[in-house]
Amino acid sequence: RYNLPPGLVLTGDGRVARLSLEEAEEVLRLNRSREWEDPAAEAELKYLEMALGACRVGCERAHVIDGRLEGSVLREIFSNLGIGTMVYGSEYESIRPMRIEDVSDVLRLMQPLVEQGVLVPRTEETLTNALADYVVYEIDGVVHACGALHVFGSQAELAAIATNPTYSHLNMGRKILNFLMEKARKQGLLRVFALTTRTLDWFEQLGFTETTLETLPPARQQTYNHQRKSRIFALELSKAPEGPHR
């Protein structure tokens, strides 16, 4: 009963079991101007719009189901095709390259961690000169996290991971880290490493192992700050997770 974009796969009962954010937007666009005789059909589109909005602000997935059906939540979650429609967002949906106008926001985001000694100080000039290395996590036009991938030959350093603690439930730091590792893999790099004084368990949980200064690229060895005594963690990209999983 809805206008659907081409290519959508329907279940045996004529239902769309899952929609990406782009597909959900297209369904809404194709049906937004229609006049509905069936109030239930119009309500379903409103629920779809709400599900899309939830995913846009960080929810990994949202389900539109008929709550009048007995056991509908369990049937939706624990069966392959469910009984409703799942809207799912990419783990990387809100991550984009840093732009010159983001630099001041990123510096403010980093400042508390610089004061705590977690991050080394950076200047506007430093960030501007390495603009292509940085990505940011944006929600509703506001930057809430950042990170950088500095390439050294066949290796790259994961650096400058900073997040807004108010949004800690969204795991933005880990999402940026995974995004940067995937970026390194696509560039054909063999290994990523990180220097840290605090977040040791975080890297270990992601499969990193502690290593020595001698394993770093020579250019990075020369700039290592011996006073900070940062510990070094590395990961061979062949062992890294290949992007987000449901």
Task: Write a concise synopsis of the structure shown.
This protein is of the alpha+beta class. The chain is 33% helix and 22% strand.
Considering the chains and any ligands shown, give keywords for the structure.
7-stranded mixed beta sheet, 8 helices, alpha+beta, single chain, 246 residues
Q: What would your notes on this structure say?
A:
By secondary structure, the protein is of the alpha+beta class. The chain contains eight helices and ten strands. The chain has helices spanning 21-31, 39-56, 72-78, 103-115, 124-129, 172-186, 200-205, 218-222, and strands spanning 18-20, 61-64, 85-88, 95-97, 134-139, 142-152, 155-163, 191-196, 209-211, 231-236. The strands form two sheets. The chain has a seven-stranded mixed β-sheet with strand order 4-5-6-7-8-10-9. Helix 6 (172-186) links the parallel strand 7 (155-163) and strand 8. The longest helix is centred in the N-terminal third of the chain and has 18 residues, at 39-56. The radius of gyration is 22 Å and the shape is elongated. The chain starts with 17 loop residues before the first strand and ends in a 10-residue tail after the last strand. The model is unreliable at 240-246 (pLDDT under 50).
